[in-house]
């Protein structure tokens, strides 16, 4: 899915919601434990209940890798269940030397070798261009580069001043030499809304993946005040507040209700910005 197609989906669904699929077996509804793959059933019912309200899904791969072979099979089968009109994000936060990154890219982008072909993968930039380039070598695939994350520890390095820029600012400006806004996004946490005006000056055309709205306390309106651009430019992720809205038989219905609240708020924001 290219940038224009992503914006078309945003306009059609009146939403820039991304739903994080980060399931923990101990937290999912107990009635699902009767299934051969309870987490897959959990994911499938959530996707079926919400796909018309969101434009992206983002499974965090750690929640699947932690369960070994079975978990990886769940991830593959979850990917297979995604509708074709949603943007898919493998939240893997990979980053290693070139040959290893090339294999990570194969894992998430090459359906022939791994049985999955996500639209995008999150990548850590610390090792520099040669660790990121292998992901960019895949046509029509996206790199979502960690820039300013939502956790408290982001201040340990990302906000450190070096010369006339903070480290996260250097990541944003340097990475634009490697790829255009048609292939490169940035992760910017919703818990840092005061930074969005500055980030939009550094990367006016790029999409931003914004975690931290919902359970982490980020404000959607604060993010949008400075984060929106002419093609929306935001994918706002919410996970726990949606997928764990209920632990009963009605979990998918309640998840839809939570997603609908965010979608309706997003629709008003898009209308106010004359984007729909």
UniProtKB/TrEMBL annotation:
Pfam families: OMPdecase. Keywords: Decarboxylase, Lyase, Pyrimidine biosynthesis. GO terms for biological process: 'de novo' pyrimidine nucleobase biosynthetic process; 'de novo' UMP biosynthetic process. GO terms for molecular function: orotidine-5'-phosphate decarboxylase activity. Pathway: Pyrimidine metabolism; UMP biosynthesis via de novo pathway; UMP from orotate: step 2/2. The keyword Lyase applies. It comes from Pedobacter frigiditerrae. This is Orotidine-5'-phosphate decarboxylase. Its EC number is 4.1.1.23. InterPro entries: Aldolase_TIM (IPR013785), OMPdecase_type-2 (IPR011995), OMPdeCOase_dom (IPR001754), RibuloseP-bd_barrel (IPR011060). Residues 16-255 form the Orotidine 5'-phosphate decarboxylase domain. Belongs to the OMP decarboxylase family. Type 2 subfamily. It catalyses: orotidine 5'-phosphate + H(+) = UMP + CO2. It is an enzyme of class 4 (lyase). CDD domains: OMP_decarboxylase_like. SUPFAM superfamilies: Ribulose-phoshate binding barrel.
């Amino acid at each position: 899915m290219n940038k224009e197609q992503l914006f078309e989906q945003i306009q059609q669904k009146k939403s820039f919601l991304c739903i994080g699929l980060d399931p923990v077996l101990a937290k999912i509804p107990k009635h699902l434990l009767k299934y051969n793959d309870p987490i897959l059933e959990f994911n499938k019912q959530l996707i079926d209940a919400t796909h018309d309200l969101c434009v992206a899904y983002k499974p965090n791969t750690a929640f699947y890798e932690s369960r070994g072979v079975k978990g990886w099979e769940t991830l593959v089968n979850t990917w297979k269940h995604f509708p074709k009109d949603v943007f898919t994000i493998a939240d893997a936060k990979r980053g290693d030397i070139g040959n290893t990154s090339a294999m990570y890219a194969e894992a998430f982008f090459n359906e022939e070798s791994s049985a999955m072909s996500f639209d995008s993968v999150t990548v850590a930039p610390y090792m520099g261009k040669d660790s990121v380039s292998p992901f960019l070598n895949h046509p029509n695939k996206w790199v979502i580069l960690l820039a300013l994350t939502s956790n408290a520890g982001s201040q340990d390095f990302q906000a450190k001043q070096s010369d006339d820029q903070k480290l996260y600012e250097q990541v944003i400006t340097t990475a634009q030499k490697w790829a255009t806004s048609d292939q490169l996004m940035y992760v910017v946490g919703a818990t840092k809304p005061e930074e969005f005006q500055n980030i939009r000056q550094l990367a006016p055309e790029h999409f931003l993946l914004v975690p931290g709205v919902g359970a982490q306390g980020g404000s959607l309106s604060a993010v949008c005040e400075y984060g929106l651009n002419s093609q929306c430019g935001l994918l706002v992720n919410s996970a726990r507040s949606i997928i764990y809205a209920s632990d009963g038989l009605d979990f998918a219905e309640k998840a839809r209700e939570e997603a609908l609240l965010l979608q309706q708020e997003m629709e008003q924001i898009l209308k106010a910005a004359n984007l729909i």
